[in-house]
Structure formats: structure tokens, C-alpha cells
What we know:
Blueprint: H1 2-11, E1 19-22, E2 25-32, E3 36-42, E4 51-59, E5 69-70, E6 77-86, H2 92-124, E7 135-140, E8 145-154, H3 158-174
Antiparallel strand pairs: 1-2, 1-5, 2-3, 3-4, 6-8, 7-8
Amino acid sequence: SSAGWIAVALGGFYHVGDRVQLGGIVGDVIDIGILRTTMMECGQWVKGDLYTGRIVRIANSFVFKEPVFNYSADFPFLWDELTVPVRHDSERTQTRDILQHVLEETVGDYANDAANEWSSIVKKYRIENARVTPMVTMTADENWLTYTLRYVTDYKARRLTKDQLYARILDEFDATGGSVQIATASGELSIMQLPRVDATVRRD
Length: 204
């Protein structure tokens, strides 16, 4: 654990305030001691990367045993996606325009900031110059059209961003007067009435 503390300090694995995943635990680092790292836990039974309220202490030796995932080092943004099922008879061009417009209005500022940060990452590491601007793609099957919205957001604001996006998308779809509609899965259960069987017992 002491050797792990030296590795953390010299290697810059993480610092106080970073959001990391250590030993399968996700949380914000609140203290780095000689023997252990202390974190405020996120996730588990609470969705959306929110705090659970539990303080977790993890031996520094974990840095030699498992990968260290840092959510906030170098690039303090995350790519996230949400999917929107749309009926086949919806107007496809209008649907894509609505989704792209909502993305740009909701997360456009994140994209601008992320582009600057990503430029530094590309210069520092041998890595693909990935797209950070919001993007909408579509796939189709027999049930509905699935639109996937891909975007970057602050690593601490994933849940809030999805809430804002879904609220705006539903409002915009409602305003189309039915030309764009969310698809829903529905099933019908039919119960067959079997003929009555005479269960009279024959006695000889």
C-alpha cells in the first residue's frame, strides 16, 4: 500500500477531487493517505452517478492489481448516448432535424469546451481525433426507427443532461401535431376458452 501511494503521487494516477473507479468502486477522491485512498461512493443502488452517502477506503495496493479509471483527468468530459424509438410512419427528416436541434441547444456549450480539451489530448497522446460535436444516427427494424443521440457532457452531469434532453425531445415531438411520434411496444394477450370436459366417472 505504501508503494501504491508512491506510485499514485509520482505517476499522477489521480488527485483529490477526481472521480475514479478503483477496485470496482466509483466515487470522488476525498483523501489520499499513505496506506489507503478515501472516496465518496457514487452509483451502486443510486443511478446517474450520484452520491450514495457511503465513505469508502481502499488500500493503495489496488493500483497494482486492477486498472484505474479516471473520469476527470486530462479530459473532464464523457461521451454519452441515449436512444429514441420513433414510429415508422413518422417524418424522418423532421425527426432528425428536431433531435439535432435539441442536442445542439442542450449540449452545444459542452461540445465547444470539449473540442478545446480534446485538441490538447490529441497533441499529448497518439489518439484518434474523435468527433466531439453532437451526432444523430438511425437504425431500423420491424418494430420502429431507433435514433441514437451521441454527445459529450460533464462527467458529473450525465443524469441531468439526459433529463433535459428527454424533456425537450418530448415537447418538440408533441408540437409536430402527430407527424413525429414516439414508438411504444404493445402486446395483446388472448385467452382461449376451452370446451368443457365431462368428467363423469364410469362405474361398472
